[in-house]
Specification:
- By secondary structure, the protein is of the alpha/beta class.
- Helix content is about 50%, strand content about 10%.
- The chain has one domain: Metal-dependent hydrolases (TIM Barrel, Alpha-Beta Barrel), CATH 3.20.20.140.
- Helix 6 links the parallel strand 4 and strand 5.
- The longest helix is centred in the first third of the chain and has 21 residues.
- The radius of gyration is 19 Å and the shape is globular.
Length: about 350
């Protein structure tokens, strides 16, 4: 395998745009919630495994999530990653009650901001917020912008509720005001939809994450969020949670459903769903180091809207970096994918 290096000798820097960390206090709070009894089966399944398993994968992930120092930097160097765009791992603070969530956002954001100050050329942060308190979330976005954060992380649903509900729109108003994109990262599906996935082991990254988060994005589209906030930018990982591949059918069936007046709440939109995907979304390839999927998404939503991500530490194999370096793609497009799109989206 070729040696991977930072510095851009291949014609571009590699900026990884969906990379996770966790303050030790967050891990402790997760352990406490598991011990006292969480009523979220997805949280129990995911974090019950990672915090209880002694498997090499689980142990390595927990260690790497909490390390923002020498080990992470060495991992980045070995994989040729020049910069990480870092966010609190899922489900972030969104699994907690309001007061705990608000306190944990302050702690997490303060710690991440300090790591970014220590390594300003290697780390860029996303501000975590507590949707449980939308007004406080808006204030934390303002504080995060002052701390130098370049995006907002939302780990999809919050106790089964989604951002298309107008009560959460102060978050979008603040995102608009500070020109920050919102990264909607997967969460395990809520109680209302997870049971068949748990029965077949499909609740996590293998399938459930994408289904749940893709649905979240579609709720924003069909409920008219982008007609209300036309400048809002949403980032989706994992090749857009498959939505680009559904574009034709999304357009056809949305139009048919609106014409049939099947649902009183589903109103005509100013654009087709696929047009919102092109105009209001950025897509990262986190976890999908697959050239055909990347090229299809570039063709579908535009080469300026598709960004590189690794998904550290959950998926961080250097062989994937080598494969993406070797894509049959002109250098200008590859530079956009690995570097300049991220520089624009995150205002680096």
């Amino acid at each position: 395998m070729p040696e991977l290096k930072t510095g851009g000798a291949q014609g571009y820097l590699r900026i990884a745009t969906e990379e996770a960390f966790a303050p030790p206090e967050l891990m402790q709070a997760y352990r406490k919630l598991l011990a006292t009894g969480s009523d979220d089966p997805g949280f129990q399944s995911l974090w019950g495994f990672y915090l209880g398993s002694k498997s090499p994968r689980a142990v390595a992930i927990i260690e790497r999530l909490q390390d923002m120092g020498a080990r992470r930097l060495a991992d980045m160097d070995e994989r040729g990653i020049d910069r990480q765009i870092v966010a609190v791992t899922a489900p972030g603070v969104q699994i907690f009650d309001r007061d705990t969530a608000v306190a944990m956002t302050t702690l997490s954001n303060d710690q991440l901001a300090e790591h970014c100050r220590k390594h300003p050329t290697r780390y860029t942060g996303m501000v975590a917020v507590a949707p449980q308190d939308p007004a406080h979330a808006a204030k934390e976005i303002e504080r995060g912008a002052k701390l130098g954060f370049k995006a907002i992380i939302i780990n999809s649903h919050t106790h089964g509720e989604y951002l298309d509900d107008p009560k959460f729109w102060p978050i979008f108003e603040a995102a608009d005001a500070y020109h920050l994109p919102v990264y909607i990262h997967p969460n395990t599906p809520p109680k209302a939809m997870i049971t068949p996935m748990l029965e077949s082991g499909l609740d996590g990254a293998i399938f459930g994450f994408g289904v749940e988060t893709g649905m979240h994005a579609m709720r924003l589209i069909v409920m008219g969020v982008f007609d209300r906030f036309p400048h809002l930018k949403i980032i989706l990982g994992h090749m857009g949670e498959a939505l680009p591949f559904w574009s034709y059918r999304l357009d056809f069936m949305h139009s048919a459903t609106v014409r049939s007046q099947r649902y009183d709440f589903m109103k005509p939109l100013k654009k087709k769903p696929s047009e919102y995907l092109r105009d209001n979304f950025y897509i990262t390839n986190s976890g999908v180091a697959w050239e055909p999927a990347i090229k299809f998404t570039q063709a579908t939503i535009g080469v300026d809207n598709v960004l590189y991500a690794m998904d550290y530490p959950y998926q961080e194999t250097p062989e994937e970096v080598v494969a993406l370096d070797a894509m049959a793609m002109d250098l200008a497009t590859k530079r956009k994918f690995f570097q300049t799109n991220a520089e624009i989206v995150f205002n680096l």
